[in-house]
Amino acid sequence: MRHCINCCTHLLPNDLHRQCFRCRGPDHNNQKCPVCRGENKIPLYTDSKQMKWLAVLEVRTDHCESWNGFFCLRKGKLCSLMFGLIIMTLVMVSYILTGAKHGLLLIPSPFHYGAFASNPSLMDNESLSDMKDYYQPSKMNISYVRDYPSIKLIIDTITSKIEFITRQRPDLEELRKQEPHMFSVIPNKFLPNSKNPCWYEEYRGNTTTDPYATNSYALYSKRFQIIFDYLRKVFWNHLYHYKDKHYRLRCLPHFYIIGQPKCGTTDLYDRLRLHPDVRFSAIKEPHWWTRKRFGIIRLRDGFHDRYPVEDYLDLFDLAAHQIQSVLQSDAVKEHGKRNNIIIGEASASTMWDNNAWIFFYDNSTEGEPPFLIQDFIHAFQPNAKLIIMLRDPVERLYSDYLYFASANKSAEDFHEKVAESLQLFEGCVLDFSLRACVYNNTLNNAMPVRLQVGLYVVYLLDWLTVFNKDQILVLRLEDHASNMRYTMHMVFQFLDLGPLSEKQEALITKSPASNTRRPEDRSLGPMLPTTKAILRDFYRPFNTKLAQVLFDDAFLWKRT
User: Fold this and answer.
1) 385 - beta bridge partners?
2) How far is 526 from 415, CA to CA, in rounded Å?
3) Residues whose CB falls within 8 Å of the CB of residue 304, separated by 6 or more in sequence, listed in order
């Protein structure tokens, strides 16, 4: 194989030399052409024979010159065009990906939230995680908008759809049909000589029977093993014997601390426990009314066996033993005195978490739950007392995010999650009622932050459809933090608790605050000012309605 130094740009066999463009021009003459006659022609061999160094240099020079040819020019243009298209594509992909991630795509969201889970085949054949994936929007459809004006348009749309409509209470017979076992266990009347709702229940086991062998709280959590081991040891000592039968005292809470999360409920619980007349469930937050009775331990894990009401009542056995000791005392038997010990329960999900209804109750045509937690509590305890602790919903949401987020926490990440959640909520209220969106499991699981928990007035109005206003005490965390003694006195008066000595009161009111923000979360600093402004706009109409319902402008949270 040879090279034509003067003209060829490719390796050509000798018999193809005549195809060379420069040697076969329009006026070409083989006899006159010095190249074709072999003059000044330096053959280069690419085999094992030695090549001439000057020839190599000449080949390289002519190689560059040959690109000026027609075919080489076309090839160069084509390569340049392809290279340009590749660079443009890479730039566009990089823009889309980084812009979506950092909130730089200033485009309106094309996503509108889909229908609710009312498909029977979907309900029967798919797990909870499948349901979430079914309704989860593609992240490419979510606009992570950072600028305030764009998100303000979303908030304006939500505000225009807000309508507070009074719900219809279900009648008692409908509730009985939904939970027949619960109604068969809990009586409709309680012991008259006890302030706390209690009753005697016949126990049919023997001395070798473990009364807590099937308790789901004990089976699913090792944390409670010590509590139930103690209850097993003292169980037989607290049975009431009458006419060759054994009876155990069963109790429900006298009051419930029903909400909200990250609003100081743990601190209130810890202080109330110090009152000599107050007892609590063995577990601070059983979450039985909202989750465990439906078999929900963690929503991401799907459903387990439903916790029966007996398992819930077992949690009050420690308090029931103390109440029984008072009932069996001479002061009560002979002098007609009354037991004044009361039991509390402090699941912060009770006020707002009705997400499981769609999996167990018949769906309504409006997408709203036909039964709520308060319907069942009121059916058994129409005189129950309810305590609600609230805080500025903007600060509550940020605290909630810092507490529950597992990694990559930052003010910027919180902003992005707020923007995404607002768009999801907007898509829902465009098609469904406010109540349907607030209580929708799929929407609430899809939102990266729990916006709905701060819509206090929506939940409060629904509780007021079944309970009287004087049965509900609503407190603000801001007031509790600034004047704890005053708020605790309000609680004592609301629960009709007896007077305390100065030492007891000091112990309750001067104890350090519970469940405060972790140091690593405090180091992240406050939320972005833009995020705060966005959330202020979102929660403003709900706070306004709350202040009207409670006749207290402090719930506008203007100064926080």
Assistant:
1) 255
2) 11
3) 216, 220, 295, 296, 297
**Residue count of the chain:** 560
The CATH class given to the 172-552 domain equals alpha beta
Please write the tens of the pLDDT for every residue from 84-125.
Answer: 788 878 767 665 555 444 433 333 333 333 333 333 333 333
Tell me the chain's radius of gyration from C-alpha atoms. 38
Tokens at residue 311, please? 């398992």
Do 411 and 525 contact (CB within 8 A), yes or no?
A: yes
Please compute the mean of the pLDDT values over residues 202-207 and round it to a whole number.
Answer: 87
Contacts of 170 (CB under 8 A, 6+ apart): 370, 371, 375
Helices 148-160 and 411-429 cross at an angle (nearest 10°) of 30
Q: Across residues 485-507, what is the average pLDDT?
A: 94
Asked if residues 421 and 149 have their Cβ atoms less than 8 Å apart, the reply is: no
Least confident of 151-155, 353-357, 476-480: 353-357
Give backbone dihedrals phi and psi of 488, rounded to 5 degrees, phi first.
-65, -35
Separation between Cα atoms, residue 182 and residue 496, nearest integer Å: 29
pLDDT in tens, 36-54: 555 444 444 444 444 443 3
In Å, what is the CA distance from 459 to each residue of 145, 361, 428, 548?
Answer: 29, 19, 18, 15
Which of 512, 313, 524, 506 lies closest to 413, judged by CA? 524
Q: Which pLDDT tens digit goes with each residue over 299-329?
A: 666 677 899 999 999 999 999 999 999 998 8
Residues 269 and 262: beta-carbon distance below 8 Å? no
Phi, psi of 349 (to 5 degrees): -90, -10
* Domain ranges, ordered by start, for the chain: 172-552
DSSP conformation letters of 170-195? PPHHHHHHH-HHHHHHS-S---TTBS
Give the Cα separation of 385 and 141 in Å (integer): 45
